[in-house]
Amino acid sequence: MRKKILELLENNGKLTAKEIAIMLALPVDQVAKEIAAMEQEKIILRYHTLINWEKAGAEEVAALIDVKVTPQQDVGFDEIAGRIYRYPEVKSVFLMSGSYDLSVLVQGKSLKEVATFVSQKLATLEHVQSTVTHFILKRYKQDGVIFEDQEADRRQVLQP
Amino acid sequence: MTITCGFEAQRFINPTVKNIPPSGIRRFFDMVASTRGVISLGVGEPDFVTPWHIREACVQSLERGYTMYTSNYGLPELRQAIAGYLAERFGLSYDPQKQVMVTIGASEAVDLALRTVINPGDEVLIPEPCYVSYRPITQLAGGVPVTVPTTMEDEFALTAARLEKYITPRTKILILCFPNNPTGAVLNEAEMQAIAALVKKYNLLVISDEIYAELRYDGPPRSFAALPGMQERTILVSGFSKAFAMTGWRVGYVAAHPDLLAAMVKIHQYTILCAPVMGQMAALEALRNGRQDVERMVAEYDRRRRLVVSRLREMGLECFEPRGAFYVFPSIKVTGLTSTQFAEELLKEEKVAVVPGPAFGSSGEGFIRCSYATSLAELTEAMNRMERFVARRLAFKHRAVAHA
To answer: What domains are defined for chain B?
Structure first.
């Protein structure tokens, strides 16, 4: 039941417990209880809104940075990841397989701001060997949502 | 166009065609089309676009040069896949060489079936409310349509007891379309068996339009042809439009007794030749790799279905719970309006379009068809608007009663 509730909420955080209960044919108080419990257990971390900031007229610059680090004894990559993800400029951090170790998404108001953050904060961290910065030029699709979808509803308004 | 004096086009039109009434929703369609900001619950097709891998398969087939005619029966690989699907999903065994033919949508298959078997004067039993084409196609083929009304009390299912009352010595064919458009009704096992017994008793042939078979919310899909003794008596009609969201591709199929299929292919080869190859290639991809898409869409329809039924009941409309297709068919009798009044006034006041029940036969009076093949956000907004409208009508009615 939790999985079904989560699947609905993941795509639409605005759904009420009552709507979810009706759609899944479950008792409403049970759904409300499960949601509260999952919030408590940090299964549900946040109700997120996906925004096309470019369309909203807000300039934003983001970069994906490949970071190579020297893992530390006992704590591996976690220690250095923790030093990186605590910066509010850092929006996400992933440990990767392959030719580099951490993938870091950094967001800022300008190219200069992001570049400065990388050169002064990120690259200078102890155990960071190297960084490669890729600026994001355009977002086509994020979290399963296509930003400029051409697939409008082209159906006729009424059909038997 | 210049019209030469003295030419009367009407004189040349076949009286059977002339007597077929024009579409019952034409006028209403124009009203909806000319209103801005309408949320339409009047659409008879999925709101999903055909899954990407299916579209991609079509594009690739074009790139590889698949632009020619296929066999009259359709691509052999596709017929094989259809037979495989019917076996796996319904336990039906058809010879893909002799018993399966690809058509231009299920619509062509219904037409072919009726034209193949009707002799002038043969009676065709048509349970109503139903899709709009069965009656005119029967008439065009020289048959006599016999309406068998279904009721909300029976959850719009066809019952054997009612059916038997309409059987005469001239009855030849029974058309079944369950899950049903416009009601969303399905036939349960017992009802199907009782109908099958009548079909045998009166030596009838069944045309079973199972285009909505996959869209079922009360268990796995069933085919009428899978009942004991019914496969040879059933012309099974289906297609890809509803289950795979492929309406515009126009690919359907028919599966039947080899002799019936051989007769049907005669009409098909002279009138159609074959279904377009690109649609057939897409359909092949749909059958091979589209199972998950169907499941995803059915799960989504099911959630919307529950929400819409719940909202309609909350606003005071009596509504039986549909178990198939993507329509609900609530009664609007409590408002004191006719179906057409309800639809027109709802459109004018709240900009929500629904289809008046009588578009699907006179037994649809007092009902409207709402499709939930619309996004959840739009459905919710449409329900909010409809709720306001119904509340106003009910308040008005209560005031009138109190006044009297």
So the answer is: 16-50+292-396 (3.90.1150.10), 52-290 (3.40.640.10)
| Domain made up of A61-139: CATH architecture | 2-Layer Sandwich (3.30)
- ipTM of the complex as predicted: 0.89
Which residues make beta-bridge pairs with A104?
A65, A93
Alpha-carbon torsion (A145, A146, A148, A152), positive or negative: negative
pLDDT by residue for chain B (404 residues), tens only, comes to 776 778 899 999 999 999 998 887 888 999 999 999 999 999 999 999 999 999 999 999 999 999 999 999 999 999 999 999 999 999 999 999 999 999 999 999 999 999 999 999 999 999 999 999 999 999 999 999 999 999 999 999 999 999 999 999 999 999 999 999 999 999 999 999 999 999 999 999 999 999 999 999 999 999 999 999 999 999 999 999 999 999 999 999 999 999 999 999 999 999 999 999 999 999 999 999 999 999 999 999 999 999 999 999 999 999 999 999 999 999 999 999 999 999 999 999 999 999 999 999 999 999 999 999 999 999 999 999 999 999 999 999 888 888 87
Residue extents of the structural domains in chain A: 2-40, 61-139
- Among chain A residues, the shortest Cα distance to B27 is held by A158
Q: Is B144 an 8 Å CB contact of chain A?
A: no
Nearest to B242 by CA among B298, B308, B305: B298
Contacts of A149 (CB under 8 A, 6+ apart): none
Q: Taking the model in full, what pTM does it have?
A: 0.94
Give the Cα separation of B220 and B237 in Å (integer): 18
Nearest-CB residue to A158 (from B131, B310, B353): B353
Of the candidates A12, A19, A155, which has its C-beta nearest B43's C-beta? A155
